[in-house]
Amino acid sequence: QYQTNLEDIFRDFGNVVIIIKDNYNFNYLNRLGMNLLGYNKSEILEMSFIELLTPDSLESCIDNIRLLRETCFCQPFIINMLKKNGEILYLELSGVKLDDGRFFFTGRNLSLERLRKEKEDVTRSEDLSRQIKRTVDVREKINHIIETIIPLNTIPEILDKLSFGLRKELGYERGAIFLVKDDKKNVSLEKLFSSINTKSEMNAAREKIIKSIEKGKGFTTKVFRTGKSKIVNDVEKEKNILRIFPDTKSEMIVPIKIQDETTGVITIDSNNKNGFDETDLRFVEILTNSVAIMIEKSKSYEVLLKRSRYLSTLYETSQTLQRVKQGKTNYEKILKHISQNLTDCTTLILRFNDTNISNIIASCNATEEVKRIFSRISDRNKQIIIDKIKNGNSFIVDDIKQKRTTLFRELYKKDIMA
After folding, report:
1. Which candidate, 234, 267, 242, places its Cα nearest to that of 166?
2. Domain residues for 389?
3. Are residues 287 and 405 both part of a single domain?
4. How many domains does the chain have?
5. Low-confidence winner among 19-33, 171-185, 328-342 (lowest mean pLDDT)
6. Residue-wise pLDDT tens digits, 326-365
7. Does 295 lie in the same domain as 335?
8. Which of 50, 133, 143, 305 has the most crowded Cβ, counting Cβ within 10 A?
9. More confident residue, 383 or 199
């Protein structure tokens, strides 16, 4: 009868009481695991109840139990329990809090009458019901945001959709998205969004953010370096916080992570004190973890797209050059076309003469130093290139740093990478 009452309580997902032993062992709730989670007796016999928790909620659950033993009180928190069929069962667990009817028992001296009374108290708790409803609502919105981002292939598209979702779906009025720099030593501001500020206010805020990042100041830099999320309930009580907007009262800073590597940071602020809670934090962390994976995927796509565009432009250019009349004016017209498609490239058109003299016919984005390097190219290097292209093949060097010849060493010194 005692066990049956426990199961009845757990079946009502909106009103949950959990009974634990001093050693944190949940073996005596075997029937609960069988009936709710779908495991058979032999599968669950040697398992502790906590082993059924998914890894991302295990640490949180243990921390809350430890806090309970030390203080006899812990705030409501959510765990995910793994069902036999692979689904996740969401449970709202509560700490000892006599004034609003939510309890977390140790199981000692617990009578059936007391258990029934506490179940009634929990059932009457409107706060708990609202919390669960909000949790379900936020989870659905997070899933929708992720679904809209999955088909996207470029980082700007992903960040646009992410900021739109944070603002429109989740109702966060203002925030910023940072991504790690190439040197991986700090982050750069990629997206600043707000539904309550003017354009001039946003421009001023952007300058202030960039300066603070360059100086290594603020919680954004700290969260990037530690990889740990942070909620600031009252910015006026924080000495080290940099308030970008004067009306900011609270802030939430969440790292964008792939496993243990932090690849960016999302900051969200509110003009209300205590504007964020653990539910906000938990689900924004879920969102950032998903976004991190999609950003990495998009980087590979963008590299492939860029290379494809380069090769297509170079092939088109080579075909055009074969048909045009010789003359610097004609070549320069073609180079203008190249510069429109390969804006970050240095481009030169050279003619190799039989007399071992190489002439630069035209160039685009080429410094005088680079021109000099190609104008005095050695016979050996010239012959290597000629032998390649005479057979109709491209001469491609993906990583100049790995090449040992004088030509490539000199180009590398002038920041030519490939």
Report:
1. 267
2. 325-413
3. no
4. 3
5. 19-33
6. 666 777 777 777 766 676 778 888 777 665 556 787 788 8
7. no
8. 50
9. 199
